[in-house]
Specification:
Distance between the termini: 24 Å
Number of strands: 2
Mean pLDDT: 73
Structural class: mainly alpha
Helix content: 55-70%
Largest sheet: 2 strands, parallel
Strand content: under 5%
Length: 107
């Protein structure tokens, strides 16, 4: 269960990083799906099925999604945590998950 929380936190960080980079650079891809301020699962499903790119998410949207959809604690997805680089713990979790997946394939 802890590994799943770390994986979701890492995904949230990646989304925050991409969002802040895109908005800082003023990148607009033209036809993008813009989610509401407090997106729901249905909003993400509709965006996914549209076939269009998803507009960068704000820190608030990422925080809302992580807490209300993914079930993380609000303390796990603060703005500071979302905007910092990955920690050693997150990097180790990625390597461990990849190693486990490879072992399952060879067994």
């Amino acid at each position: 269960m802890k590994s799943q929380g770390l994986r979701l936190l890492d995904i949230s960080r990646q989304m925050a990083s991409a969002s802040s980079q895109s908005s800082a650079q003023g990148i607009s891809k033209g036809k993008e799906v813009v989610l509401p301020r407090l997106p729901s699962v249905q909003d993400f499903a509709n965006a996914s099925s549209s076939g269009m790119a998803l507009a960068p998410l704000s820190i608030g949207q990422i925080h809302h999604t992580a807490v209300h959809i993914c079930g993380l604690l609000a303390e796990q997805v603060t703005e500071d945590k979302l905007t910092t680089g990955p920690s050693l713990e997150i990097q180790l979790a990625k390597v461990t998950e990849t190693s486990q997946g490879q072992n399952a394939d060879t067994a």
